[in-house]
Input
Amino acid sequence: MSLTQEKQEKKQSNAVPMIIVAGLFFILGFVTWLNGSLMPYLQQILQLTPFQASLILFSFYIAVTFTALPSAAVIRKVGYKNGMALGLATMTFAALLFIPAAKTQMFPLFLLAQLIMGAGQTLLQTAVNPYVVRIGPEESAAARISIMGILNKGAGVVAPIVFTALILSGFTDTVGTDLTQIQIDDMANSLITPYLGLAIFIGILAFAILKAPLPELPSEAEEGEHKGQLKEALTHPNLALGVVALFLYVAVEVIAGDTIGAFALALGVESYSVMTSYTMACMVFGYILGIALIPRFISQQKALMVSAVFGLVLSFGVILGDNNSFAIANALSFILGDVQLPDTLILIAFLGLANAIVWPAIFPLALSGMGKLTSVGSALLVMGISGGAFGPLFWSLASGSSGQAVDLQSGYVVMLPCYLFILFYAVKGCKMKSWK
Output
């Protein structure tokens, strides 16, 4: 057999696993960015304060903090393929929990369902991410990561649209009104069938994974081998500061993607449940832009600087903007059509463009020069996802308890120090090789 034939056969053998992995990345994105629609919907049904509503996101993202390392241990025990199936099974159970939560309208039960969904998502992500890098040629890993990223964020465009079509389509006249108990019951019960369908779909997918032709990857080193490297890794400023930068980045990413619906609801926008789609569409566009420009026309470091400055400018625009102005929507009517959205909402959506390439830029800058500590460094950086739990929480605390649009608008001030630190990291932090 010739070398060319061997390469072709290997490429074909990797095609099916990569298609499966691509589907899993889409599911991960769908479940994650569904929160942007779920948060204001539950806020409306359960009459939650901004702080209580932020707990819907907190309970989902905080799961990363305490399940990331146990997930790695599970993968070492059962393998990557079984780990994917187990993660999907956990997500199935979480989706089923939404049924009694909707029936009883018990807020703690919704939070438990979110927590378990976050734990299942973390396990699935821990199992599926290494496939992207290790199942194909190393020289094309970056391209595969970019494709998976687009699928993940693309799912964020689709999820709110599906949520609106299946759940909210019959309740658009409830925005800005005091709901009767009958309306509350109807809105809560409308969650049951879609989440049952989601549970069945994910459950079937979990079973399919077990039967799928996914090759098992070599196991990672045992946990004990990494413990001694943890302290050494944190002596590298570019890594330690990179972990903080990623934490703050995920905080602002989730604020932009998942609180925009709650802000739109407070502004009386009937289509509040699809607002996350606007942010995610901007992220997808930014992702594609980054693939085209980095590093051919602009370095990772400069791209990160531009992103941080753009984020600061947009944040000031959101905080100081006029909620009664529709100038941007009118200027973009060739894209938005007849959709009339306040300038402040569109500026929040534009934050998706500012955020798009921050993760891809920080990750390699933080791991630069880490050598044998790269694996431990990667694990620490992934822990930065927990920033998604605290960003909306701080936003809600800064917004107060009134739930008024003007107060929610002022809450976006918490994004300013986040972008300032990211700018510091881009200018100086990523270059630091010593704490002295």
About this structure: Residues 3-33 form the longest helix (31 residues). Residues 243 and 381 are 5 Å apart (CA to CA).
